[in-house]
């Protein structure tokens, strides 16, 4: 069980959306703590919609002033959290980093072949704990925490029996690999999904596309416009969109685990020539196997 007993002022640094969701959900459970925040990228957009939006600082250096703990995400799309870990160690400030996913653990703490680790690494489930123990250095203190974000989202999602519309929700995400082909994986996966979605046995009335927080709305237009299905963009929150869906589809995205947790059917849209889904949940089915 993770907590911040004994800490009264903390600095928080995040760039990626997953880390921001996990960190902010955890902070919502804490009382009597002064919080200083410096977010960039997708994390900043999430912060602006949270109860902590007034805690954002305008300078990275200020987050290390007069704090006795630094809490970070573990994004690998930027160097921000890595820089925060280095700065905390240089200033002798205790540092904790939260792993919000199940992939690329070592790479999240490495830049230019130099590894920098916090004093503690928090993981949010047994799958992540086992992976972290196997992949990270033995001297790193690994703590099994609650999955605060999953708990928060799951509590807000309507039960399967109460939903009034049975959408199929497709969750987009940047893949950053072309799987040895001539376009990025997220485009290949969406095209494969649209060509094979008719094989999904569950009933659904509409197909809705929810973009990743880092993606622009027109990113997939060149694929959607050529498809035979009427695709609508999902404009509501993740909680609301999953609440209105019976089936959730994606590649490696974290909300697939939320779908399973709330008794939805979850499918992976990675085509046969791509890798396996990096999420460890065996209940996720493959569209390519249907």
Query: What is the number of independent domains?
Result: 2
Helix content: 25-40%
**Beta strands, count:** 14
Question: What portion of residues belong to β-strands?
Answer: 15-25%
- Order of H and E elements: EHEHEHEEEEHEHEHEHEHEHEE
Distance between the termini: 40 Å
CATH topology description of the largest domain: Rossmann fold
- The overall pLDDT, averaged over residues, is 91
CATH superfamily of the largest domain: Glycogen Phosphorylase B
At CATH's second level, what is the architecture of the largest domain? 3-Layer(aba) Sandwich
- Order of neighbouring strands in the sheet with most strands: 2-1-3-4-7-8
- CATH class wording of the largest domain: Alpha Beta
